[in-house]
């Protein structure tokens, strides 16, 4: 029974305490005056009466009513029903003004009304929630006052305060307050179910299904929820409705349905809440960042961005929404029906409300089904203590991924749920029944909404009956104020004060009555709570069973059986499969069960190998366990890790636990708690069962105490015990309590030991475990719900009592002790262990830990003595001569990256991951190791790259799927297209990894270029860059100093640093030692140098330099091209148009140019010195090549300085306003260009201005008719470049090549007729009209200047100049750099990406590398065409050392066949790239200084372009593709000095330009890449292109569109067997090693000659060499066998070639092969040529297979099926292909007769063909001689031709079958056999 109302009060407006219009309320009267003992008076009610603030209003408002809820400190809720009405009073502000009349300036603008109205509230405070009753009671009091009824108010209030009603039980009580009223109060049947009226349905109507579900999930996952509405009662109802649908969970956080405006700061509290606020305060709620706001009036729910709400898991969410919509909107289903049923109105609100709650009950039953099986009962007496095992619940329901459920289970509401519903013996309610008895029904119906709906309706009925037990309610009778009194309220008297004494008398009277009344005894119906079906059955459906699991479990069982039967070999074979299987849960469970069977009396002693295997399996099993161990695997292994052990020396035993500590689960407090409670439950259960049963049950196997059906579960047992408890005697009770307590205590000791086993590392000096998991400060986050406060206070106090203070030196011990103490405190406090016992435990723990540390020390000592677990031996890499190790090998694992070949995804076993070591040498970074996969364990995997090519290094963390944990790793990327992802093994200390990185950085970015490998090679690896030794050879140093000084003086701007170094020796230093000490040349002496000869202007000291400069290859090239000679006296011949100028011999004019330059004969050096200032970096135009036929020249320069541009292009003919416009340098530049133009024969011939016809005639006369056929007309090329014919003159179309050079092809400001003049030849248009080109000026420029579009803005072209500017867009260095980065990522991705949009081709396209190649090639082809048509071209782009160099070199390569030979290409690179100062060091980021600029592969881009041309013209190049790859690799490798430094000047300064070849310290170290290539080329034909058969004076014009370009295989290929193949010394050594080893193994039976060739592992060219290489190799080995001195391969090749040529001439009918090579026209049909190449791929490398010069009859090519398939494309029965022919009888297949056939033996194709008859052209069959094993004499067989002698038969045995032949006679048979035999031996 309870009071209907605790307090009644009247609250009024406080006139005394007004602050600036803000009023306050005060309690005018309160009854009873004294607080009740059981419910104190709540504070602050006056705030809640007027939540929006106390204010006076000018007009009377209608009376209002709402219920506010206050929660007190004991979290009891008080319902405050407020009834507010308004009373008139005189305006206090007017009175205030009257008293302060003198302040005239404060006149109020607003006229104040004379009378205002103040609010007054009547409030009831109650602990019961009967809203309607309160409304009626307070209304009655107001009515009595207003209508002036005769009843005294004291009586009404007194009756109200003394009214007592039952709380629950479904009774009905009629009450009256003595004013002629009557009310009936119904109490709910079960007070555990909330009473909701129709508030839930109302809430859904206001917000809608999705929004309410959203709020529901938010409330359960503890978010902050704020309701807004302008109605207070609606706020209360909404909050009440939300709480009702959360049943059976109870909301335990801040709950304020109506929050007063004054307390709004409560909203910024950090804890979750459900609060309602009036919409009036909406603006104040805007800045709340983490609050979900539900606007009831507007029906919206807004969630801030930072709040993430976990929703119900699917399919639950969907099903819930469906059922809710069926309840709320039943018409939705049939909205589309043609004949809808007549009435489908939703139920009445009250019923609908219960239906919605039914849906949520159904939902919770599904969420929490089986929860009782996861309760651990750890004490039964005196009070049950229950814990929920969250991990087991989640694991068995397989819901670990479900965010929502995790959060709910962690929440406070669920904690309350467990403590309230956990006890097994208590009163049950609707939910208990549902979750116990209806789970099966729910499961079967969940997919069918209509069945669910029926169930929901049943639940709704029960809920409705609970709230309304008596449907026929007696009539209420409550007076309301009459209309008249409401209208007359103006004259109404204020609410009177009541008589305190009268009311108090009522109260006292009632109280004394109660005391005498007999107590009401309500029998509580307690019972055993049913548990429902066990979880196991529920989960079978959705427990994820792994495929093929039975087979996997079999493997696990077999492996363990083998282990214990000591069949170690068998077990090891199964091991990888077992480790893979252990990824699945079933296999893990199986493992624990199997291992359990081998444990006898808690012990299983193993030998070392068994122990290792078991530990590996355990580690693998634990590896995928999460830290909460939801599958119970760690729990099952826990008893096993303390059982399995091995005996070691000195009587020590090592247990498995010391090897499985590296797992998170052991440091998780929750895991230990769950384990502890589970064990305690088993022991308590055993305690109460009969002892004999207890024996069986006392094993650890039963985690949840859930046995099979006939066993009594611990909860049932506890329930039974709780029922009996009151009947036991005192002694029995205490005995049971003590027994239970000591059970818990003994388990706590047991667990303290267990925890110390798993937390103390074997080597206690290394605190590994604590470091990785932060155990030292793990706070106990647990799923047990008892406060931690006592635990905290005790831990500290007991710690000090340990007896081992002095011994605990290591912090490991301390942190472990702290961890165990925390655990013990927690579990003991929760399970009610006495304080004495707890103290004892705290004293024990340090001793336990210390003792364990001592045992571990002994074990650790012994384990060190044991032979270590065998890790694979670290293989040593082979090093180059002069290469030295900087750091010895560190054990690492090479992890697969995004390339699929090595991972086994594309077939074959995975070569990666591999285990081995990484070595850092002075030159390379090398990984060498063996694959993890045992199938390829004997293979060696090597990956390496030069340290100088490292472009990016990044830390990664790696988790390998093997039994060791590896934390840190590195990802190293190299610009040789290699990527190494390595993970350091655990044996590598982390500081060692840091040292490794430091060394790597130091080697990658040396201080100075002399720190690179090319300089340090052969020296000590600890080399210091600056040697302090005295130089033997001062001469060079002085010379360099002089050079530097002069340069510094003249070019003050460019800053040069001086470095110390030890220079190489110099040839004749003694001869000019004295002269070196003379003065340095000064600039003044060079003033009129042009008039003097070279020798007279030079000092003798420089002459020495000059002779070296002259030696430089460029001069030879200039002489070859006829661009000026250097005769012995160094004088010029006057009649040549160009001369070699020495103006830059001291590198004073241009630092980055060579010493000797080609300039026009007529230009003096002084002019050059002036001109050069107009160009960037002083790189003025110089000639670098001349077309031998048209005599047009190619010039290169940098772009102009911005200031020079306009002046440069101003024509001298334009009227100028003054001399300032054409300043002198500009004129000199023009003179310079004019001089170049004048040097062209076509210009001088055509008397000044050359008309187009004259020009073309001279051009055409020089080219023969065949030329016309094959040269695409220059006009057509330009047309293609410029756009289509239909374009208006002056615009550039988007199509064609030109558009991409020009940019996007907008209307251009440049002269539109750049090429149209060239196009004039093709005048007739398709439509017959004249070509537009005719209207343009009929003139072709003599000089085209290829300039940068961006720089040429503003230059106006004059139509009568001799030159013309072609503006193009240049790709700048940044573009190249970024493009290259993307290209590397595309070709060598870091990881396998499953997404389709990141395919290789997509990434390649995004890199735009091909687009850049296309641009460069396009410009080059254009320049070639211009030069070929007789115009000179000057390439003047950027700084003249990147794109300019690329274009100029490609133009020369395309135009001049000389540059396509070995010598020519070398010369081209030395001249254009090295001498003309391409900044190799800067672009390659070779030193610390250039590190920031990053790697920009300009030279690589050039090599790629050459590769593209090589692909299109395979017969034009003397060198092979491998040669280009070799250069591409070594230009970044820093192995040679060739590609170091940025210019000749720098090379001279360092003394590396003219090294004396004879005096090398170590002959094996090559300093120049060219020398190295020469030497290697002499030994092996690897750089040679066998297809080389050049055309005289052939100009190549490759196709340049993207579709014609191929990705270079240099970027993609890899040979893991030996690493990159570009360091040949290593290759040779590895082969030698490989050859030595197989000799021993060859003792066995016959071995197959075959071996598998893997794409990423073997080197294809080595495994499957092409025919010619193979023949040359065989020749060499045969010569070696015969003891002959082997001939050089080149000589052999040349001999064969000449022999073949002469033979070809003698042949009357030229054979296919000779004609292919000899006919000069064929090489232009390069397209058809390539068809043969591509289709011939029989596995051999293509570039060498079709080597027609070798296929002549003089060298029989035999034994290779791939070649024969190639030849079979050419049908020919000519005699030269028939080495021997005749008729043979051949035996048919089974039961077929012998038949005569015409047989042809073809040595060339290496086959035996047969035809029906001699004349037959159609071949009937072919026997490939490559397959023939032997030719033997045969015997006559059945059905053979008659009367033929025995010896005429012979058999041909092939790999497939045996052929039986018969010749005409024995002689003929012998001939055939010999011929075939000779063919075979030739092969």
Give an overview in words:
The protein has 1883 residues and is of the alpha+beta class. Helix content is 40%, strand content 13%. It is built from 65 helices and 42 strands. A seven-stranded antiparallel β-sheet has the order 25-24-23-22-28-27-26, covered by helices on one side. The longest helix is centred in the middle third of the chain and has 31 residues, at 835-865. The protein is elongated. About 19% of the residues have low confidence.
Rg calculated over all Cα atoms: 50 Å
Helix % is 25-40%
Total DSSP helices:
65
Give the biggest sheet.
7 strands, antiparallel
How would you sum up the global shape? elongated
Q: State the separation between the terminal residues, measured CA to CA.
A: 114 Å
Low-pLDDT regions: 98-109, 537-547, 691-710, 768-809, 1021-1101, 1128-1132, 1204-1222, 1247-1272, 1278-1338, 1556-1563, 1635-1645, 1708-1776
Main-sheet strand order equals 25-24-23-22-28-27-26
- What's the assembly state of these chains? single chain
Structural class by secondary-structure content: alpha+beta
Strand content: 5-15%
Report the average pLDDT across residues: 75
Number of strands: 42
């Amino acid at each position: 029974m309870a009071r209907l109302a605790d307090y009644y009060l009247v609250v009024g407006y406080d006139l005394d305490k007004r602050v600036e219009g803000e009023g306050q309320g005060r309690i005018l009267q309160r009854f009873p005056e004294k607080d009740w003992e059981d419910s104190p008076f709540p504070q602050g009610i006056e705030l809640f009466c007027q939540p929006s603030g106390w204010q006076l209003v000018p007009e009377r408002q209608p009376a209002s009513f709402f219920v506010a809820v206050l929660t007190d400190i004991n979290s009891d809720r008080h319902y405050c029903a407020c009834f507010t009405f308004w009373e008139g009073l005189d305006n206090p502000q007017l009175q205030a003004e009257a008293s302060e009349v003198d302040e005239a300036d404060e006149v109020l603008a607003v006229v104040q009304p004379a009378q205002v109205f103040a609010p007054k509230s009547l409030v009831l405070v109650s602990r019961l929630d009967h809203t309607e009753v309160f409304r009626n009671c307070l209304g009655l009091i107001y009515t009595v006052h207003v209508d002036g009824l005769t009843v005294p108010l004291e009586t009404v209030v007194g009756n109200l305060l003394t009214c007592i009603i039952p709380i629950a039980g479904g009774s009905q009580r009629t009450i009256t307050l003595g004013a002629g009223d009557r009310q009936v109060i119904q109490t709910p049947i079960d007070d555990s179910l909330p009473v909701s009226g129709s508030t839930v349905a109302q809430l859904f109507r206001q917000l809608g299904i999705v929004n309410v579900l959203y709020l529901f999930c938010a409330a359960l996952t503890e978010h902050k929820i704020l309701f807004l509405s302008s109605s207070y009662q609606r706020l209360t109802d909404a909050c009440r409705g939300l709480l009702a649908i959360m049943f059976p969970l109870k909301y335990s956080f801040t709950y304020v349905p109506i929050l007063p405006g004054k307390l709004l700061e409560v909203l910024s509290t950090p804890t979750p809440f459900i609060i309602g606020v009036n919409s009036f305060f909406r603006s104040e709620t805007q800045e709340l960042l983490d609050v979900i706001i539900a606007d009831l009036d507007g029906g919206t729910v807004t969630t801030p961005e930072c709040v993430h709400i976990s929703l119900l898991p699917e399919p639950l969410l969907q099903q819930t929404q469906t059922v809710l919509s069926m309840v709320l909107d039943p018409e939705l289903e049939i909205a589309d029906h043609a004949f809808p049923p007549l009435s489908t109105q939703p139920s009445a609100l009250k019923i609908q409300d219960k239906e919605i709650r039914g849906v949520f009950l159904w939902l919770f039953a599904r969420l929490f089904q089986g929860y009782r099986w996861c309760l651990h009962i750890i004490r039964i007496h005196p009070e049950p203590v229950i814990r929920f095992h969250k991990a087991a619940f989640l694991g068995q329901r397989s819901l670990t991924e479900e965010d929502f459920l995790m959060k709910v289970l962690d929440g406070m509401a669920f904690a309350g749920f467990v403590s309230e519903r956990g006890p097994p013996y208590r009163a049950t309610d609707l939910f208990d029944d549902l979750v116990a008895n209806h789970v099966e029904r729910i499961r079967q119906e969940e997919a069918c909404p209509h069945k669910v709906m029926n169930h929901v309706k049943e639940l709704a009925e029960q809920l409705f009956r609970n709230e309304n037990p008596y449907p026929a309610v007696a009539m209420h009778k409550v007076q309301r104020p009459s209309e008249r009194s409401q209208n007359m309220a103006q004259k109404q008297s204020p609410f009177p004060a009541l008589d305190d004494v009268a009311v108090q008398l009522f109260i006292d009277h009632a109280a004394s009555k109660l005391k005498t009344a007999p107590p009401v005894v309500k029998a509580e119906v307690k019972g055993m709570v049913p548990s429902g079906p066990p979880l196991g059955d529920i989960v079978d459906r959705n427990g994820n069973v792994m495929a093929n699991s039975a087979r996997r479990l079999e493997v696990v069982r077999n492996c363990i059986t083998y282990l214990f039967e000591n069949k170690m070999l068998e077990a090891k074979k199964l091991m990888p499969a077992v480790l893979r299987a252990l990824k699945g849960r079933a296999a893990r469970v199986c493992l624990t069960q199997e291992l359990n069977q081998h444990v006898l009396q808690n012990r299983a002693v193993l030998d070392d190998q068994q122990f290792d295997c078991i530990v590996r399996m355990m580690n693998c099993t634990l590896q995928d366990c999460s830290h909460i161990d939801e599958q119970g695997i760690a729990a099952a292994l826990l008893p096993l890790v303390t059982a399995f052990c091995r005996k070691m020396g000195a009587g020590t035993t090592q247990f498995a636990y010391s090897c499985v500590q590296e797992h998170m689960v052991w440091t998780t407090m929750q895991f230990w708690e769950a384990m502890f409670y589970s064990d305690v439950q088993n022991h308590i259960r055993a305690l109460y069962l009969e002892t004999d049963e207890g024996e069986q049950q006392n094993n650890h196997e039963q985690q949840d105490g859930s046995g099979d059906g006939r066993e009594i579960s611990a909860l049932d047992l506890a329930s039974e015990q709780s029922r009996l408890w009151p009947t036991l005697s005192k002694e029995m009770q205490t005995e049971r309590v003590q027994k239970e307590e000591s059970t818990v205590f003994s388990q706590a000791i047991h667990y303290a030991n267990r925890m110390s086993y798993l937390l103390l590392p074997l080597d206690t000096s290394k605190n590994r475990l604590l470091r990785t998991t932060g155990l030292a400060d793990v706070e106990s986050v647990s799923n047990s719900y008892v406060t931690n406060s006592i635990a905290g206070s005790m831990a500290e106090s007991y710690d000090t009592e340990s007896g081992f203070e002095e011994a605990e030196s290591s912090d490991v011990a301390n942190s472990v002790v702290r961890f165990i103490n925390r655990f013990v405190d927690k579990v003991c406090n929760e399970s009610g262990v006495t304080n004495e016992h707890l103290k004892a435990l705290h004293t024990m723990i340090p001793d336990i830990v210390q003792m364990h540390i001592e045992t571990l020390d002994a074990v650790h000592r012994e384990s060190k003595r044991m032979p270590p677990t065998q890790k694979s031996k670290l293989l040593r890499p082979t090093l180059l001569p002069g290469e030295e190790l900087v750091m010895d090998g560190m054990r690492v694992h090479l992890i697969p990256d995004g390339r699929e070949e090595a991972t086994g995804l594309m077939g074959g076993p995975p070569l990666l991951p591999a285990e081995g070591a990484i070595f850092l040498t002075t030159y390379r970074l090398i990984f060498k190791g063996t694959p993890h996969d045992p199938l390829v364990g004997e293979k060696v995997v090597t990956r390496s790259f030069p340290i100088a090519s490292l472009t990016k290094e990044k830390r990664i963390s790696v988790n390998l799927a093997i039994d060791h944990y590896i934390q840190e790793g590195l990802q190293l990327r190299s610009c040789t297209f290699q990527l190494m992802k390595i993970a350091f093994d655990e044996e590598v200390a982390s500081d060692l990894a840091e040292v490794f990185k430091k060394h790597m950085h130091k080697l990658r970015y040396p201080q100075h270029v002399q720190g690179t490998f090319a300089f340090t090679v052969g020296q000590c690896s600890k080399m210091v860059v600056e040697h302090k030794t005295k130089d033997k050879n001062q001469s060079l140093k002085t010379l360099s100093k002089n050079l530097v000084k002069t340069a510094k003086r003249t070019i003050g701007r460019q800053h040069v640093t001086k470095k110390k170094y030890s220079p190489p020796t110099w040839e004749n230093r003694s001869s000019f030692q004295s002269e070196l000490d003379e003065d340095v040349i000064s600039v003044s002496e060079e003033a009129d140098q042009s008039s003097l000869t070279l020798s007279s202007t030079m000092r003798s000291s420089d002459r020495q330099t000059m002779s070296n400069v002259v030696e430089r290859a460029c001069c030879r090239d200039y002489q070859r091209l006829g661009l000026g000679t250097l005769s012995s006296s160094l004088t010029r011949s006057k009649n040549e148009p160009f001369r070699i100028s020495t103006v830059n011999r001291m590198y004073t004019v241009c630092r980055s140019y060579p010493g000797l330059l080609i300039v026009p004969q007529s230009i003096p050096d002084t002019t050059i010195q002036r001109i050069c200032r107009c160009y960037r970096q002083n790189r003025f135009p110089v000639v670098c090549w001349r077309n031998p036929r048209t005599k047009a020249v190619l010039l290169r320069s940098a772009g102009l300085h911005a200031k020079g541009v306009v002046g440069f292009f101003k024509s001298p003919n334009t009227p100028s306003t003054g001399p300032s416009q054409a300043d002198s340098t500009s004129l000199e530049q023009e003179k310079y260009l004019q001089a170049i133009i004048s040097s062209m024969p076509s210009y001088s011939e055509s008397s000044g201005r050359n008309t187009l016809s004259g020009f073309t005639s001279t051009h055409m006369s020089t080219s023969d008719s065949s030329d016309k056929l094959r040269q695409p007309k220059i006009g057509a090329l330009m047309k293609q470049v410029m756009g289509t014919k239909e374009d208006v003159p002056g615009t550039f179309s988007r199509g064609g090549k030109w558009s991409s050079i020009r940019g996007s092809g907008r209307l251009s400001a440049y002269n539109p007729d750049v090429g149209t003049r060239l196009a004039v030849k093709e005048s007739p248009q398709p439509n017959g009209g004249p070509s537009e080109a005719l209207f343009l000026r009929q003139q072709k420029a003599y000089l085209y200047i290829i300039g940068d579009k961006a720089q040429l803005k503003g230059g106006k072209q004059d139509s009568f100049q001799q030159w013309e500017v072609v503006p193009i867009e240049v790709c700048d260095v940044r573009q190249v750099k970024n493009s290259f980065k993307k290209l590397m990522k595309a070709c060598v991705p870091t990881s396998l990406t499953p997404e389709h949009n990141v395919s290789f081709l997509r990434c390649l396209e995004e890199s735009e590398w091909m687009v850049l190649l296309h641009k460069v090639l396009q410009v080059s082809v254009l320049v070639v065409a211009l030069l070929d048509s007789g115009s000179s071209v000057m390439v003047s782009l950027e700084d003249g050392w990147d794109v300019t160099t690329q274009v100029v070199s490609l133009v020369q390569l395309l135009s001049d066949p000389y540059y396509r030979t070995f010598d020519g290409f070398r010369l081209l690179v030395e001249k254009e790239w090295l001498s003309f100062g391409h900044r190799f060091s800067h672009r390659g980021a070779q030193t610390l200084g250039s590190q920031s600029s990053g790697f920009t592969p300009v030279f690589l881009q050039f090599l790629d372009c050459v590769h593209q041309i090589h692909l299109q013209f395979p017969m034009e190049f003397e060198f092979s593709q491998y040669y280009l790859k070799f250069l591409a690799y070594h230009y970044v490798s820093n192995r040679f000095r060739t590609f170091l430094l940025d210019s000749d000047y720098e090379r001279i300064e360092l003394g590396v330009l003219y090294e004396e070849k004879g005096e090398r310290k170590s002959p094996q170290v090559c300093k120049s890449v060219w020398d190295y290539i020469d030497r290697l080329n002499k030994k092996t034909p690897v750089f040679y292109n066998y297809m080389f058969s050049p055309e005289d004076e052939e100009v190549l014009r490759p196709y340049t569109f993207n579709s014609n370009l191929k990705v270079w295989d240099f970027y993609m290929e890899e040979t893991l067997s030996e690493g990159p193949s570009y360091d040949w010394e290593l290759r040779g050594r590895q082969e030698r090693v490989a050859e030595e080893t197989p000799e021993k193994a060859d003792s066995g039976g016959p071995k197959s000659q075959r071996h598998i060739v893997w794409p990423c592992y073997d080197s294809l060219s080595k495994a499957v060499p092409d025919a010619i290489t193979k023949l040359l190799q065989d020749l060499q080995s045969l010569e070696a066998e015969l003891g002959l001195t082997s001939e050089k391969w080149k000589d052999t090749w040349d001999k064969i070639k000449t022999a073949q040529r002469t033979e070809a001439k003698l042949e009357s009918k030229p054979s296919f092969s000779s004609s292919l090579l000899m006919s000069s026209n064929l090489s232009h049909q390069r397209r058809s040529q390539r068809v043969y190449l591509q289709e011939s791929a029989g596995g051999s490398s293509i570039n060498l297979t079709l080597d027609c010069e070798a296929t002549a009859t003089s060298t029989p090519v035999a034994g290779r099926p791939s070649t024969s398939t190639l030849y079979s494309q050419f049908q020919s029965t000519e005699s030269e292909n028939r080495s021997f022919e005749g008729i043979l009888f051949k035996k048919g297949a089974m039961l077929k007769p012998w038949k005569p056939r015409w047989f042809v033996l073809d040595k060339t194709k290496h086959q035996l063909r047969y035809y029906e008859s001699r004349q037959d052209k159609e071949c009937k069959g072919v026997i490939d001689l490559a397959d023939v094993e032997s030719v033997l004499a045969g015997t006559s067989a059945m059905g053979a031709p008659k009367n033929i002698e025995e010896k005429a038969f012979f058999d041909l045995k092939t790999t497939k079958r045996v052929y039986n032949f018969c010749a005409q006679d024995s002689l003929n048979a012998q001939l055939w056999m010999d011929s075939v035999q000779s063919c075979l031996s030739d092969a």
